[in-house]
């Protein structure tokens, strides 16, 4: 049995979405993130980084969201989240890497500066916003060019890469950053029309938002 530790409206959404797409059975331990439960000794024994999600598999613990999602997807090949062809698997990994290195930093830097950094190290918000808007526009342009005729970033259709990218795009909304590329906004709407998203919203782990 898979046991996922997480918290609503965090990177946990990626792991939950992947689990729901695969149909695998899992236990879900919802942590009180706002109350600091991730900082307490019982959870620090599981994840010393005090972050979510974490996945427990047969007494072993997996950390880092992309690694967790890839492991889950690999356990359910019939779900089709990982392509059959070696080239498309590489392309999927390319977009997962792009999500981490290019698409995610702008909204995450804004959020960390507002909510995480202590006052002594906070950056000038106006200057940071300008720089991150520049980076965001560049990343969005690349993503817009990468969306295929299938409506997703792989020719074969929806994959694990789309889960990673779509959840990151949701982070832009959380950071009150605009998604200026119409093609990217349509892409996000398409991804969010999947039944797994409605399930996560019904569970209370993903807030409803307007697109």
- Quaternary state of this entry equals single chain
Number of strands: 4
- End-to-end C-alpha gap: 36 Å
Compressed to H and E, one letter per element, the order equals EHEHEEHHHHHHH
Radius of gyration: 17 Å
Provide mean pLDDT, rounded.
Answer: 96
Low-confidence segments? none
Overall outline:
globular
* Range of strand content: 5-15%
Helix content estimate = 40-55%
**What structural class should be given to the helix and strand makeup?**
alpha+beta
Widest sheet: strand order? 2-1-3-4
> Biggest β-sheet: count, sense, barrel?
4 strands, mixed
Enumerate how many helices there are, as a single number: 9
What keyword list fits this structure?
211 residues, alpha+beta, four-stranded mixed β-sheet, 9 helices
Description:
This protein is of the alpha+beta class and 211 residues long. Helices cover 53% and strands 8% of the residues. Helix 1 (12-22) packs parallel to helix 3 and helix 5 runs antiparallel to helix 6.
Protein topology:
Layout (H helix, E strand, L loop, with lengths): L1 E5 L5 H11 L3 E5 L10 H4 L9 E4 L2 E3 L2 H10 L11 H18 L1 H11 L9 H22 L13 H15 L7 H11 L2 H9 L8
Parallel strand pairs: 1-2
Antiparallel strand pairs: 1-3, 3-4
Summarize the structure.
Helix content is 53%, strand content 8%.
């Amino acid at each position: 049995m898979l046991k996922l530790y997480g918290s609503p409206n965090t990177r946990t959404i990626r792991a939950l979405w992947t689990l729901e797409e695969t149909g695998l059975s899992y236990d879900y331990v919802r942590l009180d993130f706002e109350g600091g439960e991730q900082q307490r000794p019982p959870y620090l024994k599981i994840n010393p980084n005090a972050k979510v999600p974490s996945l427990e598999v047969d007494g072993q613990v997996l950390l880092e969201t992309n690694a967790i999602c890839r492991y889950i997807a690999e356990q359910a090949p019939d779900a089709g989240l990982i392509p059959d062809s070696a080239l498309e698997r590489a392309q999927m990994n390319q977009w997962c890497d792009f999500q981490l290195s290019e698409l995610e930093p702008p909204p995450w830097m804004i959020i960390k500066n507002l909510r995480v950094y202590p006052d002594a190290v906070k950056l000038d918000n106006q200057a940071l916003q300008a720089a991150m808007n520049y980076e965001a526009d560049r990343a969005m342009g690349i993503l817009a060019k990468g969306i295929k005729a299938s409506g997703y970033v792989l020719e074969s259709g929806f994959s694990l890469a789309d889960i990673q990218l779509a959840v990151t795009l949701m982070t832009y909304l959380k950071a009150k950053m605009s998604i200026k590329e119409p093609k990217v906004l349509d892409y996000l709407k398409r991804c969010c029309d999947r039944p797994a998203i409605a399930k996560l919203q019904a569970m209370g782990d993903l807030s409803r938002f307007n697109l």
